[in-house]
């Protein structure tokens, strides 16, 4: 029993020695990494393809370098725009190793050291870029492919009318060339340029994740925005009242003109009717007998009107047609 245990222990020791020896002699290169083999501190070999390889133990060391895209989140920092406005910028960077040999010789194949260099370079780029832009330009250029159609980008609800050039030509609003705003990420990449080439790395993209105002400035900015919007609303209200008054005055004037024309037309029709009435009377009583009958009829109408309300006494002039009939003169 003791001999079996002893053999088992020896077998386990031999197994572990073989495993340790195998690991010391071999190394593996994964699909998503480079492996750099150093001998006495000098780069001996760089492997870019996956596989199992052999090394000399205690003489050669192996470092792994990521081949895939790397993400680095920069800490928040204060930046100042060209119009002296303080803003808080928080960005992230997508980067990759392009030259593993240069990356190893300059940064000792250490991604933490690389991110430290990227932090400094990108922060300086953000600071330089934003310091050459106004706060409004920074806000507008956060998104790509934004176009500004007027000088005041904030008033995007203002109607743009056709314009007339110096030559007197009218240019339609939808044909006016609109300047494209360059995205801030593109500006940052241009500012970084080739600074990272010396480390064997390349920055693929820089994006502003957070771009905000310091807490102490937010309330003032909000109040200013409210005031500006109130001013715009007041301007629209005043314009509406002015246009309403113009419409009211125009309508009142048109109504007066229409009433005046209607009254004149009515007076004309009445005058024509009276003239026609007089003509009819003239034609109806164009001889003495008809005229006397007309006068007699009118006298009877007058007498009838006088005897209303219980009156029984009628006073007639001796020249009255009715009196002349009673006197036997007719």
Architecture blueprint of SSEs:
Layout: H1 2-25, E1 26-29, E2 33-39, E3 42-47, E4 51-54, E5 60-66, E6 70-73, E7 77-80, E8 86-97, H2 100-107, H3 111-131, H4 135-140, E9 146-147, E10 163-164, E11 170-171, E12 180-181, H5 184-192, E13 201-212, H6 215-284, H7 288-306, H8 321-326
Antiparallel strand pairs: 1-4, 2-3, 2-5, 6-8, 7-8, 8-13, 9-12, 10-11
Helix pairs in contact: 3-5
Characterize the structure shown.
Strands 6, 7, 8 and 13 form a 4-stranded antiparallel beta sheet that branches. Strands 3-2-5 form a 3-stranded antiparallel beta sheet, with helices on one face. 49% of the residues lie in helices and 21% in strands. By secondary structure, it is of the alpha+beta class. It has helices at residues 2-25, 100-107, 111-131, 135-140, 184-192, 215-284, 288-306, 321-326, and strands at residues 26-29, 33-39, 42-47, 51-54, 60-66, 70-73, 77-80, 86-97, 146-147, 163-164, 170-171, 180-181, 201-212. The chain has 8 helices and 13 strands.
Poorly predicted spans: 144-166
Global structural class: alpha+beta
Indicate the CATH class of the largest domain. Alpha Beta
> Which band does the percent of strand residues land in?
15-25%
Q: Considering the protein shown, what is the CATH homologous superfamily of the largest domain?
A: Band 7 domain
Average pLDDT value?
Answer: 79
Query: What's the number of structural domains?
Result: 4
SSE pattern, N- to C-terminal: HEEEEEEEEHHHEEEEHEHHH
What can be said about the biggest beta sheet? 4 strands, antiparallel
Radius of gyration: 53 Å
CATH topology of the largest domain: Tetrahydropterin Synthase, Chain A
Count of helical regions: 8
Could you estimate the helical fraction of the residues in percent?
A: 40-55%
């Amino acid at each position: 029993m003791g001999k079996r245990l002893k053999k088992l222990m020896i077998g386990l020791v031999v197994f572990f020695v073989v495993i340790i020896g195998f690991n010391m002699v071999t190394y593996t290169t994964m699909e998503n990494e480079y492996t750099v083999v150093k001998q006495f501190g000098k780069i001996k070999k760089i492997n870019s393809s996956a596989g199992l390889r052999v090394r000399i133990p205690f003489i050669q060391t192996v470092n792994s370098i990521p081949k895939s895209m790397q993400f680095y989140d920069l800490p928040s920092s204060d930046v100042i725009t060209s119009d002296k406005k303080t803003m808080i910028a928080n960005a992230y960077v997508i980067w990759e190793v392009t030259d593993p040999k240069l990356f190893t010789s300059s940064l000792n194949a250490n991604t933490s050291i690389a991110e430290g260099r990227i932090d400094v370079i990108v922060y300086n780029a953000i600071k330089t870029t934003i310091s050459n832009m106004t706060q409004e330009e920074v806000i507008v250029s956060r998104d790509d492919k934004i176009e500004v159609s007027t000088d005041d980008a904030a008033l995007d609800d203002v109607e743009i009318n056709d314009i007339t050039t110096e030559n007197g030509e009218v240019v339609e609003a939808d044909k006016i060339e609109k300047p494209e705003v360059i995205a801030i990420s593109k500006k940052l990449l241009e500012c970084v340029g080739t600074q990272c080439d010396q480390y064997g790395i390349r920055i693929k993209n820089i994006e502003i994740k957070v771009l905000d105002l310091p807490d102490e400035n937010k309330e003032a900015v909000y109040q200013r925005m409210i005031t500006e919007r109130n001013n715009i609303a007041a301007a629209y209200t005043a314009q509406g009242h002015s246009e309403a008054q113009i419409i009211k005055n125009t309508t009142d004037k048109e109504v007066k003109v229409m009433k005046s024309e209607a009254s004149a037309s009515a007076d004309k029709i009445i005058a024509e009717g009276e003239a026609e009435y007089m003509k009819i009377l003239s034609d109806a009583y164009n001889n003495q007998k008809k005229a006397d009958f007309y006068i007699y009829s009118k006298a009877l109408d007058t007498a009838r009107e006088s005897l209303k309300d219980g009156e029984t006494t009628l006073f007639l002039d001796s020249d009255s047609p009715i009196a002349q009939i009673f006197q036997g003169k007719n």
